[in-house]
Amino acid sequence: EVAVDSSFSGYDASPLNDGVTVGEGLHWTKEAWASADKAQAHFIELRFPEPRSIARALVYWSLDAGVARTSREITIEVPEGEGWKRVAIVRPPAPEAVTEIRFPQAIRSDRFRFLQPVGAGPQGRPNLMWVREIELFPEPAAR
């Protein structure tokens, strides 16, 4: 199950876990999810029926006119008590189509939240979070 904090007009969260990582030929609202374009934190929360262990994640950013709309910072969190515990923070150094996040140790939870802080969106659209897909993996990638 996927939950988001908001959606830009015409968008919904369904692309985030539809298994489609190449959006060529799709309508822009089916290629990716976009948050509301507001100065607030934005998030994507992935919920599972039971706890899962993940060792890495891939975030596929929206491609607008061939340009990756990479957030400048995202935090990965899991529930802790009544709030959230940060387990990773990622600051991609430049726009990239896919950001890989490797965790030093597998993280076990039934909920994982990808949070973009206020104003940490892509260059030119700092108040927007724009994502095609998120994939979670139980094992690190082979090197």
Write structural notes for this entry:
Strands 1, 2, 3, 6, 7, 8 and 9 form a 7-stranded antiparallel β-sheet that branches. A two-stranded antiparallel ribbon has the order 4-5. The longest helix has 4 residues. By secondary structure, it is an all-beta fold. It is globular. It is built from 1 helix and 9 strands, in the order E-H-E-E-E-E-E-E-E-E.
Can you tag this structure with a few keywords?
50% strand, 143 residues, seven-stranded antiparallel beta sheet, mainly beta
| Strand-residue proportion | over 45%
Radius of gyration from the alpha-carbon trace, in angstroms: 14 Å
Order of helix and strand elements from N to C terminus: EHEEEEEEEE
- Could you tell me the number of beta strands? 9
Oligomer: single chain
Spatial gap, N to C terminus: 30 Å
**Major sheet: size, sense and barrel closure?**
7 strands, antiparallel
What does the average pLDDT come to?
Answer: 92
Structural class by SSE content: mainly beta
Helix content: under 10%
- Low-pLDDT parts are none
Number of helices: 1
- What's the shape? globular
Could you give the topology of this structure?
Layout: E1 2-4, H1 28-31, E2 33-34, E3 42-61, E4 63-64, E5 67-68, E6 74-80, E7 83-90, E8 98-116, E9 130-137
Antiparallel strand pairs: 1-3, 2-9, 3-8, 3-9, 4-5, 6-7, 6-8
Q: Could you give a quick summary of the protein structure above?
A:
This protein has 143 residues and is mainly β. It has 1 helix and 9 strands. 3% of the residues lie in helices and 50% in strands.
